[in-house]
Structures are given as C-alpha cells and as structure tokens.
Amino acid sequence: MAVRPGKEMRGRIKFTMIAVILCLTLISSYSLVNIMVVKGDEYQSMASEQQLYDNVVTAPRGNIYDKNMKFLAKSATAWTVYITPNGINNLKDEKKQETLRTLIAKNLSEILGEDYNDIYEKTKKRTYYVTVKKKIEKTVADKIRKFISDNSDLEMTKYVGLDETVKRYYPNDTLASTVIGFVGDDNQGLAGLESWYDNELTGVAGRVVAAKNARGTDMQFTYQKSEEAKQGNSIVTTIDSYIQYVAEKYLDEAVETEHVQERGAVVVMNVNTGAILGMAVSDDFNPNSAFTLSAADQAKVDAVSDTEEKNKLKSELLNRQWRNKAVSDTYEPGSVFKIFTAATALEENLINVDSKFTCNHTYVVAGNPYHCHKAAGHGLQTLPQAIANSCNPAFIQIGQLIGAETFSKYFEAFGLTQKTGIDLPGEATSYYHKLADMHATELASSSFGQTFNITPLHTLTLAAAAVNGGYIVQPHLAEKFLDSDGKVVKTFSDTYKRQVVSESTSATMRQLLEYVVQNGAKNGQVAGYRVGGKTGTSEKVAKMLELNVKGLYIGSYVGIAPIDKPEIAVLVMLDEAMGGQYYGGAIAAPVGSKVMAEILPYLGYEPQYSEEQLKNMSVSVPELVGTDVEAAKQTLANAKLSYKVMGTGAKVTKQLPVSGTSVYKGGTVILYTDNEEEATTTVPNLIGLTVSEVNAAAAAAGINVEFSGNTASPDLKAYSQSIKAGETVALGKVVTVNFREQAEADIAAD
After folding, report:
1. pLDDT at 46
2. Among 321, 381, 383, 438, which is disulfide-ready with 404 (CB 3.0 to 4.6 Å)?
C-alpha cells in the first residue's frame, strides 16, 4: 500500500516545482531577448543571406598585342552552364523530379559532350547552384537556350541557366605560345606574359546580388544590386608577329630536318634596345587547349598502364611543352662564347687584331691536354683567323693572358652571374666558376665556352654588348600598358644597365665577327647584306657521363646585321641534333641566315648584291595567263627564264609555276595553251649536289628550284629539299633546296 506524502512534504514538492518553472521561464526569456535584441542583426543577416543570390561577374582580362597592335590574346564573352538541384528536390511530385533529372542529364550531356551519369548525379545534390561546364562558346550556349525554350512547359528556366562570363582566346593558336602563356579556369595567368603581368591584366570583378526565395527562384518583389566588372590593362609587346612567324617557320624546319631531340630555340632581339622581336621554341603548344598534349606525347602517356605513372608522365610532358627553353634552360655556350673572351682581352689591351697565336693541335694546361678540332692544328694565326677558325688552343692562350681575376670581373660585368631580368617567369640562374674556384683548367675551358652554364638570353645580351658600343641592354617584351579606353597608362623605356667595353673595342668586334661570317661561318651569310656572327658547338659532358653515351651536342649561332650599324641579333640553338650533322656552323648558322634573309627586307633594309650573288639570285615568275604565246616567250626571255609550250593554242591559258613564284635564273616556265592535262615528272634526289649540279638535275627533270641559304660559295652542297626524291609532281613544280658549306668543326674538344 502506497504511503501518501504528508501535508508538509506536499508543500515542499510544490515549492520545488514552482522554483524550477520560474528558473526555466527566466532562462527562456533571456534567450528570447538575446535572440531578438542582442543578436537580432546577426540572425537577420543570416536570414537575408539565405534569400540572396550573390554572383561574381568575371572581369575581362586586358588584351595582349604585338608591336603592330595585332591581337596575341584577348577575352571574349563565354557562358557557364549551371543547374539548380534544390528547385527539383523541392518538388512534391517525385515523378516530375525524375522526368526533369533524366531530361536535363540527357540533353546537357549531348550538347556539352559531358558524361550523362555525372550530370544526373548533380541534379540530386542538396544545393541551389551546381556548375555543369564553364566557358562554353556562343553556339553551344544557343543550344542550351533552345533546350530551355523548348521545355518551357516544364518551367525549365527554374532548373537550368546560363551565367555570362569571359573566356581567354588566342587567335593565332600556337604562335608565340611559350611567350604569351595561358590562363587557368579561374582566369589567372599560369605561364608566360599571362603569368608575369597577371596583376596588370586582371581586371576588377563585378557583382550581382538578387533576391531569391527558399526554393532558389526569383522572389515576387524585385531586389538587385550590381557592380560592373572592369577590364584589366592591355599590354603592347615588342613581339612582331611576322618576325615571330619567320623564326618559328625556320626553327621547325631545322628541328625536323636535323632530327633535334631536345628542342630548339630562335630569339630575335634589337641589340640597341633589348626589345625581343621574336622568341620561338620548338614543340610549342596551343594555349587555347594548353592541357592537351601533342599526338606523339599523348601516345607515350597512353602506352603506360599504371595510373600513377601515367599521371606523372603526363605532368612532366605538359611542363616540358610549356617550358620556354630560351629563358628557363641553361647550356654550355661553346665557341659562341669566344665573343666574350675576345672582347675582354681587347678591352684590357692584352691583344689586338695583329696578335698571333700558335696552334699545334694540342695545348697543355696544368698537365691536361686540350685539342683543336683540326688534326694538323692551325699553325701561326692572327686574331681574326683564330676566331674564324674557332681555334680552342688560341683562345686558351687568350684566356691565360686575361687571367682568372679579370676574367671573373668581366663575367660579372657582362651580367652573366645574374638573371637578365626579362619579363617572363622561370628564368634560370647561371652556373659558373667563382673566382676562388677558377684554377688554370677552369680558366682554360671557360675561355672557349665550356664547364659553365648560362641561358641563351645571356649569350644574346653579351653578343649585343660586344657590337652595340659596349652596352648591356635589358631584354624585355612589354612596351606599354593601355587602359580599357586604349589610353597609355605606362610606357617601358629601354634600359641600359652599364657599358662594359668601349666603342673602340666594339668596333673591332664588329670587324672580327664580319670576318668570321666571310671566312669561317659562311653558312651565316645573307645575300645582299653585311652580317657578322659566331658559331658554337658544345658537348653535353654531364649528360653523356650520366647516361654513359657519346655524341650529345648543342649547335648554336649568333648572327648580327647590319654589322656596320648593328640593329638585329638572331640566336639559334639546336639541342641534340641526330641527323648526321651537329656543328653549329652546319645546322644553326643556316637557320640564322634564313631568318635574317626574310626579316631584314621586312624591316626596311635594302639589299646590296655583289656580282657573284647576282649570278645565283632567284627571279619572280611574271603573270602570263591571257597573253599571246609569242609575247609570253619574250617576257620570259627578258627575265632570263626558259619556257616550254604545251598545246597549239595562241594564248596562254595556264602557267606553272604561277606568277609571283621565285625560281632560280634559267628555270623553266610551262605554258599551257589549251585544256590538256598537266604534264608530270619525278623529283630527283638533289641531296649532296653542288649548286651547278642541282641546276643540271632540275633542268633534266623539268622542275624548278628555289635556293635557300648561302649560295655564293663554290663549296656548297644541298642538304635538304622541300619535296622528297621520287615523288610525282606537275612539270615546272618548284622545289626549295637548302645549301650549306660543310662547316669545319667548332667543337670544344675534350
């Protein structure tokens, strides 16, 4: 039987209950006051944020122009496709939910080329906004709009939408890609000028804030606040698109012809200002699809089965194709560096043009033998002869005259211990012998350009200083900044760091380098122009030792024109040529010659041809279609061209080669006078033939030839032809034949 509490006990319980209730009421009241009064603003803000759609409007990046205001990079309108899963999830009709999900996934996957299942899963997410694809083109965006319109009965605007944004566009595809760089999905510069000047190119983002209800759709009342995006500053560069094209054309040709394994580079610079007019790197990429490998590289990746190794290899290959070899790689310059050694010794009055040096093939320094490339040695030679012969023993002797201390002082003065400071990311640092480590053997090898590493840009700037009056220039790519209205907001002035040698020394160097091209590096000659230059061939000793292989070389050349009043310097570097030739004089100098032959007339320099050069000049084929046959014959005779008439008509109905085509003097123009079929012939093998032998073979086969490279020397041999031997072509077809002298080795031996 339960015992009922007494009166006193009941009173205590009642009191306790009242006390508890009172405490709970006080706590609740305090919380309510705290929410409503103390933290009212905070919670109100949170509630407001749940009802606001805040969209950042991407600002267009500034444009990148070449020096002639041609677009290298620009921003265009693009669109981001998005879906609103919450709009679907909040529907009460589950059948309609599924209908919408499958319809959206099917159509968007087909239009965008994306995975169906991936999009379907995105429609199920618990969120208002999910990106499906960024930066789509207008044609694709229009298809999305049509899909939305065609399904208006399902209120598709509530579930699929487009946000306007910007997309970076590179109108010239691969042209100057390693210089320009590219941007990522977030519109941030990731390489090249896009990265270096990212802050200037990046604009100020805009913003749109609009009211939304709990379902994420527009509320009945209107609330929208917007801030317009502001375009970034544009950059006018020093790059000339035509010069860039020429540099890339002949670099790619050489890389293919000479089977270059580790890429190559061509840089064209104004020696007086440091302005980079062209910078070509082989195996370049398309910045419009920067993360796409070349077909050859992708095949390498596809051949790897392990996922981790596959991803690692792809990353390595992507970084390789983005890497600017002219800026980010160092190399042993080889005999090109003899420009430095000669200029230093001349400036210190240690030698002059009449100084003589003896070469008996081998020269011993501290017990170590150094060999000349010429087995019999060069005997007694003057300074001009020594540099034209690219004689290592002679330059070791010059290096000994200079001494380690002075050598190191000028090495620093020429800017070789520091980066050039070019406005590109990833510039490499030199590796060199410091004075404390510059012993007799290091001095000997350094004097002819081995056992230290500099960048191709270093080589170019030291060569420029040697001929421009002695001034170290600042290599640069930016010329000026423009605001969104096209007004100049900043101009970059040409920077001279310091004068390292005198004008008199520079004048002597100009004479020496012209002598080199006339008597040594003959493949660097350019018909109609006075050119100076120096070749180099360096052994990749470290890599050869690492891999236990032989025959890895870098062939290089620096050409300067007009040498009597220098303006343009062209550097060519070909890394690991495996086509049979690897000397700089044989593989790099012809590239420099071809580049200069096209850009010098373009820059307004008129050629002055010698009689010997005129003999081997090509002529332009005149327009003959529609003229009387007899008149056409006379026109061709006046142009020193032969002819062959096909048919019996009185007028020329067709001609091969067509008008404007360059052919060698004495070439044959085929004149068709009726509608008969084109006559054909077989291209002969022209490789290894002299100029006269090529002409004879071409005439016999009924083809025309266009000569490329130095054609004035009697010792020239053809080393490549634009159409392979054995191919069937139209009678009169023009075949471009490249000639070069079998250059004496300028290799830094042992």
Report:
1. 42
2. 438
